[in-house]
Design brief:
Blueprint: E1 3-11, H1 17-29, E2 32-34, E3 37-45, E4 61-64, H2 71-84, E5 87-88, H3 100-109, E6 117-120, H4 131-138, H5 144-151, E7 155-159, E8 169-171, H6 174-184, E9 189-193, E10 200-207, E11 210-216, E12 226-227, H7 235-252, E13 256-264, E14 267-272, H8 282-285, H9 289-305, H10 317-323, H11 330-345, H12 347-357, H13 361-369, H14 372-385, H15 391-413
Parallel strand pairs: 1-3, 1-4, 4-5
Antiparallel strand pairs: 2-3, 6-9, 7-8, 7-9, 10-11, 10-13, 11-12, 13-14
Helix pairs in contact: 1-9, 1-13, 7-11, 10-11, 14-15
Bound molecules: adenosine-5'-diphosphate (ADP) and magnesium ion.
The site of magnesium ion has 2 residues, from loops.
Amino acid sequence: MTVRNHLVGLLLGAEEDWPTAFEAIAAGLGVFDYQGRSHLLQTERVRISPFNLRDRARHDVVIDRLAYWYYHPREWLKKVALMDDVYLMNSPFTFQSMEKHAAYCALIRLGMKVPDTVLVPYKNPLDNVRWAYTARNYNDPFDLAEIAAEMGYPLFMKPFDGGGWRGVSRVDDVADLLSAYDQSGEMLMHLQKSVEPYDVFARALTIGPESMVMHFRPDEPMHNRYAVDHDFLSPSVGAEVTTIAQTVNAFFRWEFNSCEMLIQGDTVLPIDYANACPDVALTSLHYYFPWAMTALVRWSAFCAATDRRARLHVDTDPWFAVADDPELDYAAKLRAYQRLADEHFDTVRYREFCAAALPHLEEQVLAWVDSPAFDRMLVQTVVATYPEAEHERFVAHFRGLVGLWVSDAHGRHG
Ligand SMILES: Nc1ncnc2c1ncn2[C@@H]1O[C@H](COP(=O)(O)OP(=O)(O)O)[C@@H](O)[C@H]1O
Ligand SMILES: [Mg+2]
């Protein structure tokens, strides 16, 4: 039987850990069979060079962690999506909606409990010769303190297109407000009602139809933000968190994204969920890293072997039909959104594919994570990430957390 080769391109920034993991797991997979055909995943790190728009890409799938800040490869992604049918996990055409603002709007329209949010005009004049005329003739004067007082303190002021906590301030009173606004300068800012106190911060990492809902502690240093905590949400809140994360992704055509939600009692409030191509570093995810790598390989294999067609543009109709249906309450809408997300991700077929074509993947990943090769990568990652005085401490820290995953996985596989 002939084997179909599928080339998976990795478009990378500074990271070495997860690409190494992805390459090792994909190589270990070898030839796999699905519905009478044999398949092989090959991997290659994408190079950046001039490209003719008529060149044909050799890749079947590309996983991107670079285009959110580097625009030459971003345009290459658009070209290969439009011209070569390369499967991309996040549509480059909805990257515009990667700013928080569009994602807030979409989720509010869908009836989610996004905290009250106002978009404030720029503090400093725009660097554009037309600004002065437009501002003089059309900008309404406004009283920021009055807007804030109406919303009620405490508030957060943060960029409309934020990421990595850049420019985020908590605003407790009018003095904080004015100083945060002064400092915003040329950044465009949201003012958002603070959700507090909240009981727990949940962060869902979603890859294709798989979501891992993790207990997140934003005040901890990076290596400690994800707690290893399996039952920190009630089953119904956990399901709601997963549905919200998968709704965002299916709506915007993102399949590799993280979604941050604050939980107050039984209420789930999404605050940040436009993080396409999120951080999946071993030093952030630790215990959850093997799951993330397994999911990335599984979803890539599924997309390649089933010739999944990327849907590049947002199709609002089916979502808004649910959102605007006066007969449906919030719980019924969530159920309908989950059905739409399952359809988008082809979730039933994906599960069937995983069981039929990749039955040994988890054991294979377990053997690799438990091997000296993984440990070498862990040590190299720590050495590359932390100052020398901290190496020993962090090697022990991450070995401990990965070891915990290994023993839990042994428990699952007997
Ligand atoms: N409305 C809010 N209520 C409570 N905390 C918030 C709110 N908005 C932001 N925060 C806090 O600020 C952090 C950064 O804000 P976020 O919107 O996630 O921006 P970024 O995209 O930079 O991560 C969050 O992780 C959370 O701890
Ligand atoms: Mg955030």
